[in-house]
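Quick one, tokens below:
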């Protein structure tokens, strides 16, 4: 059987081997220690985990983050989420086909126990960048903190991020990879004696007595009584409604990053991306690093909303980017086989006759994030003092989440009357800068200089980022220290000129700096570029295609050097030689074969509401057309829609479909102020009833 593991990666290294035997439909396979079922199955090419009981539709992963139930399987007789359940030795796993029948257990076999209860000053839900940063600030003040996270590793999305961080070098580790920031924050928190950490533990509800129900390590239900609650639960991905949107192979960027960067599993061969924000753009480059072909990317807006340097990396690599386009349909029988896209007008409506069709085996949806705020809302409702930080408060970059956690940690310490200095106003200014959206984009000004050696800064958009200015040993790169969103500038200085040390090239998070060297010849120049793919793929003497910032090809030229700088692991410096007049234009290497669309026979043959056949509720298989018809009959209460269709009543508790239903109201011209939302009640995450009652089997080996 084909091995779908990533055994070689330019940045990530995992020496563990699959040694644990498990059984899928009675067929033996091997998994790595502590590997999730979903990743172990994907590593063996298994993409369909079951079939829906309503219409036998194939089911696979969608969020890979415990937010939905699309990946449900039957493990040792019990239904579990494959993305959140680790493989155990000799585990017997079967597809979830139809409604699972649970084993019968005589009542005499049960034993009950009192619920354990804990009292703490601060409970932090979420061990991502914001939660860890807040825990560090509180722990340094001696505050008794309990931090819980539903994953086995702390760091949240940081553990999925292999790129170097933007932002402030001084404030938030800019220039350091996300995976390394996670380790730094985790080490800092574990070193604080007043901070207790529970991993693989999930908050499932907040109650009127101000207690928080926590499922500890997947088996023990406990009640935590905090004086103050900090919600740092991050965000969940938005979805889209289009025909074929629930096919296996259609899933979120977070699921893709989890499989590729956390578990080193290659989930596909040919990827297509929907969404041009930072999440989609970064995921595309992660795919290229993992050896996955990226067939294209669509963005409905006239321009991508993410950082231009991320977009430029894809364009230079050979990925076609279609702005003012949207996805029309995913085509496939049991799995995605093709995607159809079309251009949209100024009202974001598809334009007949502009359809394009691409073969692909995975469609990655990256169309934005919603805060995971049900814990905050419930705490406010019952009167429990609560704060929110990071994406749970406001969607922004992870660098902003780190600083947000720092501020909120100090705000909570003030509330608890800890003897700390007042929070500097400068911190709020830094937070605003880190949270800011991309600013103005400037036209790249051609360099006229053809002497000496100096960096070319292909960064033309106002974004918060300053590693290049901090790393130059001669302080020749300048960024306004009062606002690091300003563009970097190289300062020509004849007395202390550039030494060609290449540090700025290696540290740039956007891979947007090259070094040109005109000292060897008048006709030929050498250009050094950052390269974060497998270094073995390039050798001295190879001819490589080079492109400018926007991906326009400049020609093929020979590689003359390949090297790595100490302290910059994962970034290779590739030096090419080419005519002097092209040197300052070179910005990147063409890395993959560019895809072209296939002929599409049904051009222009779509109706006004082509999404009527799309599923808006994945759990209960409720289509857009069903809900749209109810809205048009005058239904303005989502509770009525629930009663009539069961939308939002499935396993995920409306985490995906409720936002889609609200967007459907808006698309029908109905303001949300006229729409009654359903109440959100605990339990927020599905758990067996026996867990809530702390009832176990007498032998305590087969817990229900």
């Amino acid at each position: 059987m084909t091995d779908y593991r990533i055994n070689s990666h330019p940045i990530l290294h995992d020496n563990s081997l699959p040694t644990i035997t498990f059984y899928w439909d009675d067929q033996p396979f091997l998994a790595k220690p502590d590997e999730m079922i979903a990743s172990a199955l994907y590593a063996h090419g298994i993409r369909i985990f079951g079939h829906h009981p309503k219409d036998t539709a194939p089911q696979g992963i969608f969020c890979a983050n415990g937010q939905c139930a699309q990946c449900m399987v039957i493990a040792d007789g019990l239904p579990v989420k494959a993305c959140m359940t680790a493989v155990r030795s000799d585990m017997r796993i079967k597809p979830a086909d139809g409604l699972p029948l649970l084993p019968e257990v005589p009542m005499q076999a049960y034993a009950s126990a009192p619920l354990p209860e804990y009292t703490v000053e601060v409970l932090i839900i979420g061990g991502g960048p914001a939660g860890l940063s807040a825990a560090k600030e509180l722990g340094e003040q001696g505050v008794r903190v309990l931090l819980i996270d539903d994953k086995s590793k702390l760091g949240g999305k940081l553990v999925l991020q292999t790129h170097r961080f933007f932002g402030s070098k001084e404030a938030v580790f800019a220039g350091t990879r996300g995976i390394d920031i996670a380790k730094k924050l985790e080490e800092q928190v574990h070193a604080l004696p007043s901070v207790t950490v529970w991993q693989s533990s999930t908050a499932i509800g907040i109650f009127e007595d101000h207690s928080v129900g926590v499922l500890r390590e997947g088996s023990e239900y406990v009640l935590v009584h905090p004086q103050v609650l900090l919600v740092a639960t991050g965000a969940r991905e938005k979805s889209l409604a289009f025909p074929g949107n629930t096919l296996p192979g259609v899933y979120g960027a977070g699921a893709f990053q989890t499989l590729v960067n956390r578990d080193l599993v290659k989930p596909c061969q040919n990827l297509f991306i929907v969404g041009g924000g930072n999440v989609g753009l970064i995921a595309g480059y992660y795919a290229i690093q993992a050896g996955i072909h990226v067939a294209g990317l669509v963005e409905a807006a006239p321009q991508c909303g993410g950082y231009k340097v991320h977009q430029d990396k894809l364009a230079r690599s050979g990925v076609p980017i279609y702005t003012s386009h949207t996805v029309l349909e995913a085509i496939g029988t049991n799995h995605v086989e093709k995607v159809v896209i079309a251009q949209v007008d100024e009202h974001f409506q598809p334009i007949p006759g502009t359809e394009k069709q691409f073969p692909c085996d995975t469609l990655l949806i990256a169309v934005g994030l919603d805060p995971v705020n049900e814990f905050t809302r419930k705490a406010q409702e019952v009167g429990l003092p609560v704060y929110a930080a990071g994406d749970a408060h406001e969607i922004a970059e992870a660098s902003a989440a780190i600083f947000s956690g720092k501020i909120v940690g100090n705000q909570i310490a003030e509330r608890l009357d800890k003897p700390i200095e007042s929070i500097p106003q400068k911190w709020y200014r830094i937070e605003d800068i880190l949270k800011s959206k991309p600013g103005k984009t400037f036209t790249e000004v051609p360099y006229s200089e053809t002497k000496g050696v100096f960096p070319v800064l292909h960064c033309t958009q106002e974004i918060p980022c300053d590693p290049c200015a901090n790393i130059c040993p001669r302080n020749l790169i300048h960024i306004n220290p009062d606002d690091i969103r300003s563009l970097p500038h190289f300062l020509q200085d004849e007395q202390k000129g550039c030494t060609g040390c290449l540090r700025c090239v290696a540290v740039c998070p956007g891979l947007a700096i090259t070094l040109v060297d005109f000292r060897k010849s008048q006709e030929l120049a050498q250009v050094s570029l950052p390269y974060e793919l497998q270094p073995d793929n390039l050798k001295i003497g190879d001819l490589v295609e080079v492109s400018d910032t926007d991906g326009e090809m400049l020609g093929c030229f020979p590689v003359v050097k390949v090297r790595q700088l100490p302290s910059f692991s994962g970034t290779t410096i590739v030096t090419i030689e080419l005519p002097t007049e092209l040197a300052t234009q070179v910005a990147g290497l063409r890395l993959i074969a560019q895809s072209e669309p296939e002929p599409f026979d049904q051009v222009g043959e779509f109706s006004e509401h082509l999404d009527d056949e799309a599923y808006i509720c994945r759990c209960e298989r409720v289509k857009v057309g069903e809900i749209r018809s109810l809205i048009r009959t005058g239904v303005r209460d989502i509770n009525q829609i629930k009663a009539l269709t069961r939308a939002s009543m499935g396993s995920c508790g409306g985490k995906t479909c409720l936002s889609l239903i609200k967007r459907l109201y808006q698309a029908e011209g109905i303001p949300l102020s006229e729409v009654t939302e359903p109440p959100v009640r605990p339990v927020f995450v599905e758990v067996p009833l026996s867990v809530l009652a702390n009832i176990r089997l007498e032998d305590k080996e087969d817990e229900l």
